[in-house]
Amino acid sequence: MAVGVLGGLGLGVAPAALAAGEDITFIQGVKGDGFYISMACGVEARADKAGANVKVVGPEKFDATLQKPILDAVIASKPDAILIAPNDVKAMQKPLEKARKAGIEVVLVDTTVNKPKRVAVSEISSNNYAGGAAALRAVKRAGVTGGKVMGIGVRPGISTTDARDAGFKDAVAKDSNFEFIGQEYSQNEPAIAAQITTASIAANPDLKAIFASNLFSAQGAATGIKQAGKEGEIVVIGFDAGPDQIKALKDGTVQALIAQKPYNIGTQGVTQALRAIKGKKTKSKITTGFTILTDQNVNTNFGQKAAYRSEC
Fold first, then answer.
1. For an engineered disulfide with 142, which of 106, 134, 172, 235 has Cβ 3.0 to 4.6 Å away?
2. Which option is the CATH number for 3-120+261-288: 3.40.50.720, 3.30.565.10, 3.40.50.2300, 3.40.50.12100?
3. Phi then psi for 177, rounded to 5 degrees?
C-alpha cells in the first residue's frame, strides 16, 4: 500500500509507487480527531493487505462548507473509490451524487446523507441510537436511580449525533423513574455547553445527569457543573474514547464514555469499496458495536483496546 496526501491530513508515504493497485481516498469528518485517526488506521491496514493505495484528507473543522471543496478536489483526482464521513445529511447529498455520476464508488463511514442509496454502495457505522440508549444504562451504573436528566448535542442535521440524542431520549421515556427535561445543542462549542448547563441547573437544581453526545458538549457540561457548584452531584456521560475523552474520564470530568469501534469501520469500509471496484456484491448497511468505559475498566486491557488512537 502507498499512503498519500491530498490537501489534508497526511499519514506518511510508503515506498511503493502510487501507480499500483486500486486508488482509494478517505475523507475524514474532521482532521486530528482520535475517532477518525483510528478509522484511518483501519483503512490503512486493510488497504495494505489488499495492495491498494490510500490518500487521507479532511477539513479542519466538522463543517460541510469546508468538506465540500475537499470532496470536489478528490472527485477531480478520479480515484476508484471514496470513503467519506459526510459533515451534513443535506449539504453533502448533491456533491456525493456528483461523485457517483463520475463513476467513483462511494462508501459512507460513520455519518450518512438523506438519500444514501443514491450515492453509496455501502454504509458503515456504529448503532448510534443504541449507543444513546446505552448512555442511560451508564447513568444507572454511576449510581443514579432516577430523576431529571437532559441531553446536550452538537446541532441538528448530523446523522450520528441525532441518533445518539434520540436513543437517549427514547430510553428515558421508557423508564418511569427518569424525567427528560430537554435536548440542547452546543454548536460544538464548550462555552455554549457550559452556558446551557448552568442555565439548566438554575432552572432545575435537582438535575441528576447529562448525556453529552460529543467531546465538546461533555467538556462544557463539566465546566457548567463546576461553575454551578454541583461537582459530584451531577453525572456526565460522554461519547467516544479519544485521548481527550479518556483523560476526562480518568480526571472525573465525565463518569462514563460510550466508545465506538472506528478501526473496524475503516477496515470494513475498504473491504466494501474493493468489492464494488471489482464488480462484486456489497453489503448495503453494516452496523458495528460499542462499549461502555468507566473509571473501573479504563485502565484494563479491555479499556486500552477500546481507546482510540492518536497515531497508527
1. 235
2. 3.40.50.2300
3. -80, -15
